[in-house]
Fold these 4 entries.
Entry 1:
Amino acid sequence: MINALNSLLHQADSELAAAISTSQMDSWRTKYLGSNGELKGLMARLKDAPRDQKPELGKRLNELKLHLEASFESRRGMISDVPKSPSIDVTEPGLPLDEGRRHILSRTIDEIIDVFGQMGFAVADGPEVEDEWHNFTALNIPEGHPARDATDNFYMGEQAGVKRLLRTQTSTVQIRAMESQPLPLKVVAVGRVYRPDTHDATHFSMFHQIEGLCVDRDLSLVDLKTALLQFAHAYFGKDAEVRMRPSFFPFTEPSAEVDMKMHIRGQWQWVEIGGCGMVDPNVFAAVGIDPEQWRGYAFGLGIERIAMRRYGISDIRWLFENDARFLRQF
Ligand code: DAH
């Protein structure tokens, strides 16, 4: 019986290896694995085998059956006219992996903070939902001032008798820094600000500013201009220039608009990027700093303005639409 088993195994293997079509496969299966097939015939002879050989023979028959079934399956996968389960063509070119990247505004913010960090500015922070004290009063914007109009602010109702609003400027962080940190002080704060502007190519109801504040014993406009120039050189290149035009802000005296001359796409351009000035004595008074002892300079720059000019983005809305086709360019 062992011999019959071995010769069945060899015969079945070689016939299977020679099968090249579905019909040959089918007849092979009927011949060896069918209900009247060779294997069944051999199994029927088990009952006549000597008693002491039965366990071993039974085991061998079982192995043979498993072997024939597995051989059939694997051969079937190789026969071309048999429908196969989906297989992988390893010679096909791969699909490109979509690589993620940080948003162009986040990268701009990181780069700008990095430059100011190297200039000795620490990073300060403040809430986006502010009270009127930090957004207006302490910044020398008294009650009744047009900047407080309901149409120019997102008021959010009162909490414990205090009117809340989404901050319209990061200058609020100047107040928070002076209230909480010892002097001298040299900080920048970056964050979102909110204004109910109608959306168009240059206006969005939320945008980002970077605020700078330095308070020390002997500071003058020269220090302010030096800081802005250092930033411009580090960020836009050594040929960049800074221009200050007299202006007015309630929290600085004197005040100026800041323009920077940047080299953009082969051209030098003056771009207005924010405001600056020497901290107004009324602001110092609001936070209990003696204006006879301390001087301060401050500036606030628009992040979107910088990024849009630098990267040639002509519509601010694109920055917030999260269209990957746009963002992927940077
Ligand atoms: N907060 C002003 C704005 O949003 C910008 C600004 C002007 C900030 C002068 C300053 C400054 O710190 O000194 O328009």
Entry 2:
Amino acid sequence: MNKQLAEFQEHLLKSKKIVALVGAGLSASSGLPVFRGSQGMWKNYNSIDLATPDAFYIDPGLVWQFYSWRRYSALQAKPNKGHEALAKLSHIPELKYLTISQNVDGLLNRKRNDELDDTYIHDPRKLYEIHGSLFTLKCTSFMCNHVERNNFHQPLTPVLEDTEFEYLNKGKKRSREDEGSVQEQNIDPIDIISRQDTFASTSSSPQFQPVKTIDEKNLPRCPICEGLMRPGVVWFGESLPLDLITGIDNFIEHGEAPDLILVIGTSGTVYPANSYVERVKLKGGKVAIFNIDIDDDVVEGKVDRVWGFKGDAAELLPLALEPLIGKI
Ligand code: OAD
């Protein structure tokens, strides 16, 4: 590890152009769950199954409850030192730098506390949030397409209030009984969403707040046309914002080649994000992976032009980047 770290830092100091590819693992130690593996669940649902246009079309109330909980969790969370290390990197004037983030939690855009200066917030010009943001809302009407950014209201509508707490009686402010249109949902009728009943089946398991059936009129509505609003995130099967994808292509392909790509807390399973690592390598750049789960060969330095730093990105990143960004 020390030899690898020394080699990495030597390369880091020589690098003129750096890309970072960020995934859910960066926010894990801020308390936000990752998508894949045992944590990738919301109540009895697989998070990935809820992140689809089909799930929203079939039951927008169910999907809004999931996103309302994610908004609440993200607002409760604080950026960690890993976020701050990337923010610091983005403010080095002589460095050509870009963060490609798959995260929608907004933690790179916030400070841990108000006493910290603005170099603890990522330079927005160098941050491409390719999967959108939990705090953007979009109108679903084709005729309108209104987009509302930086909406931090919580809950977004009164019926979404109880969805903030995942478990019964845990941190719950007050109980809100059925408001006419809101009822408990006994059995999930949705085929495409996989239900895993094992979670709630033992007496020692925590009891989830029931998922409700919510009438569309009680979900967030468009201020312009009254249409149904949806979360401003990219769902599976949807296109990524063309301007961002073009910007990334230009950054990687044009001008001098990137010297380094930092691959932080991502399983690298989603295209096109996972293609950027190979593209930087093809241009002659090196790869540094920060993840709690890395192949031994990589950790031991046996893979050409790849360093692997195994552990919590929130701890390892500030340490590894220290020669450039100073102590955090
Ligand atoms: P995943 O859940 O697929 O992967 C998270 C990665 O973070 C895994 O490789 C973990 O080993 C690693 N990890 C967990 N805790 C960590 C920690 N403390 N420090 C470092 N690494 C840690 O999440 P993503 O790769 O972000 O897309 O998933 C990519 C996309 O798939 C998401 O943006 C989302 C999802 O479905 C959409 O919703 C379109």
Entry 3:
Amino acid sequence: MSAIRILPDLLINQIAAGEVVDRPASALKELLENSLDAGAGEISVLLEQGGMKLLRVLDNGSGIAKEDLTLALARHATSKIASLDDLERVVSLGFRGEALASIAAVSKLALASRRAQDKHAWKIESSGGATRFVAPAALSRGTSVEARDLYFNTPARRKFLKSEATEFAHCEEVFKRTVLSRPDVSFSLQHNSRAQWRLPAQDASDRIRAVLGDDFAAASVAIDEYSAGLRLWGMAGLPAYSRGARDTQYFYVNRRFVRDKLLAHAIREAYHDILHHERHPAFVLFLEIDPAVVDVNVHPTKIEVRFRDARAVHQFVYHSLNKALSAPVVDHNAARAAPANPFVARDHSVQSGMNFEAAQPKALYETLFADMARSQASPINNARQDIPALGFALGQLQGTYILAQNDKGLVIVDMHAAHERVVYEKVKNALNAGTPATQPLLIPATFNADTLDVATAEEHSALLRELGFEIAPVGPNALAVRAVPAMLKNADAADLARAVLRDIREIGASSVLNERRNDLLATLACHGAVRAKRILGVEEMNALLREMETTERASQCNHGRPTWFQITMEELDKMFMRGK
Ligand code: ADP
Ligand code: MG
């Protein structure tokens, strides 16, 4: 007997389900896309138990003919493309014809539909992929897809489901992504009979405000740029918002939500100059591009895309965003003076708005930066024997810079950036040596968290422990930090926990300790470092200078900015025209 056999259809669909509908949220994504592809103007979602018990999407779209109902549940059956040619210029969200078949294979599914010309609706039911006959049903125009008891027949998959709250959080995120993409469509979402969202058809800026809140709207700029067949529009958050924002990154290519390395890079570059300590900008951006020059069929869930001219797209996104972000200088500073200002520590909020960094003209900064790049060629430890390379502290300027004197003249140190680098190396060494020592907190730091954060803490508690953290849910929207890595014990535990959870979510648990480890280290270091505006004593300042001297790569902070620079006596003399 031959050892190789062709798998039965049901098994094929169950295998595919592992890719296309790995959790309720993925099934929801597929159903919402089908409704949008059907031209619906109104879509309502009903969930029970995080979508695990029931997931229902009802739309008023074009509907499905009675004779197509069976086909709709069959694998590789689609009305959206018929040829390779179609595939190459596909504009619909779906086209692979595997979503309904996959969902049907792992649930108890009921599909009811009625087109405008039909006298009444028809429905088909299926349990674990075995379809039953088509029967008349009651439904006004459109389609209703109802999936119950997801994975009831695939226990291995069911085991991977998390708590109800976790699965709901993922569903809600999918819902947000979808509603942001189509403000012209009205949406509602109900969970366990409670209304969670109700969004009328509205214009894009109202939709963005409704989903992301007034804070985001107030601290963001509108973008709309065209060039050579490309359009980028939407809203980009200013640095003042980025700190409060977690996971507020929505990028769409032809209204399809994507996560793409190339685009992410272009965006990061555009923010590079203005985004200081916070590495995660917030944005909702739509790229419109000729469908023929972008391949969306890279991944079963279509979350990745490939551009024919990747370089041109990168350049366009970078320049458009950069332009929009650098335009509103006045607004930008106004935003900084607002309470959300990330550069003014809360405990010194009474200080004058005069912020050394904000007051610096950019040209001067660049001059300093250029000097720094040159001085980086020489290591710090090149001083005379008696005077340390970075000298001794004279005092602190505006709570931000340490002024010190060495044998060459004046040394200016960006206190936070320098300390951040020192902490970074310490944390790196500690993690390389295994799990860092933990410091239990006498009083756990509790904080309000969104459901996704709670879900992340639950899901990745083992990883968190490995990093030296103990973070546990204490309610549907609250987390408690019970322990932190000992070397970060001076950080604000709640802020630190939030940042770590965000990293795990954005970077992915598998990469956070491997290829993206540096990002995590940077986050930990940023929070472990002294805050700007903290008043330091002379001994503390000298201690930092000594630590810098013995730390590798101390001349540059983790964001690639200089941590210190030197003004020599000759330079000072020149400034004051001494000896001329
Ligand atoms: P795809 O979306 O890739 O075509 P699906 O398995 O998601 O594959 O859906 C199969 C087919 O069922 C679609 O091509 C479409 O013709 C039909 N269909 C699914 N959902 C709807 C809906 N909500 N309204 C109208 N037709 C639908
Ligand atoms: Mg589909």
Entry 4:
Amino acid sequence: MEVRKDLKFLRQKSEPVLEIDGSIRDLVDQMVDVIDLERGAGLAAPQVGVLKRLVLVRFEDNEIVPFINPIILERGSEKDIVEEGCLSLPDQLVNVKRPTYVRVRFLDIEGNTIECDLEGLEARIIQHEIDHLNGTLIIDYISLVDKIKKIFN
Ligand code: NI
């Protein structure tokens, strides 16, 4: 399984997972292999060519957790700016401003509805991955000032 880098594909919106069947479980297994191989912090299904609302997040203890149909229920008012990379955009690092806290609802691999609070790096990763499900990429966060600097460099 290769990481997709074609922007036209990555710009598409992903569809909800309607049933957690064998094909979804296989997809999760394959995505775990990819994230391990690529040493990624997170991975979204569209990055491996599947337009389904499914992402993986690597937690700080190194555990890789699948989030199926994730939605952000709540965002903290505090934000910070951190430089992010993306396996689909290997040559880009972009400063992205995001809330430092989010509350997320998702299905686990058994189909249980889970709600969890994420902070810091994990909050950042899940927001980056949910962006992928909506066709949003880190390059969309490049500020106008940085774009102009790039042109004149
Ligand atoms: Ni990414």
